[in-house]
Known about the structure:
1% strand
Amino acid sequence: MSRAETTAGPGLQDGEQGQPLVGRQDSGRERLPAPPAPRAGRAVWTLGLFGSELLIVFRRVRTLALLAVLAGVPLLVGIAVRIETRDGSSVGGGDGGGPAFLEQISNNGLFLAFASLAATLPFFLPMAIGVVAGDAVAGEASTGTLRYLLVAPAGRTRLLLAKYASVLTFCVAATLVVVLSAVVVGFSLFPVGDVTLLSGNTVSLSDGILRGLLIALLVASSLIGLAALGLFISTLTDSGIGAMAATVGLLITIQIVNNIPQLHALQPYLFPHYWLSFADVMRAPVIWDGIVKNLALQALYAAVFGSAAWARFTTRDITS
C-alpha cells in the first residue's frame, strides 16, 4: 500500500487525501453533520447570558423593593395634590421647571406622570440605578460566584456587556414603573382630557400620551451615564455594599455640586445637569437644545466609564 493510499484510506480518490469527511458523501461512508457556526453559537450564548443576568437582577428582593418605592412616589404625590386641591385651590410651581407640572395635575391626571418623573429623577431613580449598577460585578465577587461565571465560555467582555445591558434594562423598567403607577393614580383621582402644554398650546390626549412616552424614553436615557459609572465602581472592589454606597454617595456629591452657583462653570459637564430638560418636550415647538446636550453628555459618560470598566475588568485578577 502506497503512502497516498495510507493517508487517504479506502473510499478516497486521488487528490482527496487529507480532506475532512465532514459534510461529504463517500462510497461506503455516512455523511457526518457539519459543526454549528461559531458565530451563531456565540450569539445564542450571549443572549442566554443576558437572560441570566436579567433574572439575577429582577429576582432580588432588593430590586423589587426599589421598584415598589418608585411605584409609591406617584401615589403619594397624587394623594397630596388631591388633598391640597379639594377646595379648588392650586398647588405651587409655575416657573417652567419640573415642579411646574404640579399645578397642572388637578386639571389633567396625565401630568402626574410628568410630575412624578420630575420628583424621582433627582434622587430616587438614580439611587435605584446606582444600587443595581454598583452591585453588578462587586456583588458577584462578594458571594464568590464571579470566578465560576468566568469558567463558562462567556469571556469577560461579553459578561461585562451582559451586566451593563441588564442595568440599562432596569433603567427602562424603573422609569416605566413610575410612569405606569402615575397614569393609574392620575387617571383615577383627576380628570383627563386635552393637554395644555407648558407653552400654553393645547393638544389632544393622544398627542399628550405620545409626548409622555418620549419623555419616559428620555428619562431612561438620562441614566445610562450613571449606569456606566456605577458599573466601573463595581469593578474596583469585591464588596457589593461598598460599591453601592460609593455610587450613591458620589451621586449625592455631584448633585450638591450641580446646585452650587459658584461652580456654574463646572456644572455643564456633570451628568445630572440636563436631566430636567425633558420638560421641553411639553412645549410647542419642542426645544431640543437641552435634550441633545443631555443625550450627548450621557453618551460621553457611558463611553468613558464603560471603557474604564472594561479595562479594569478584563485585566483584574479574579480571586473570588
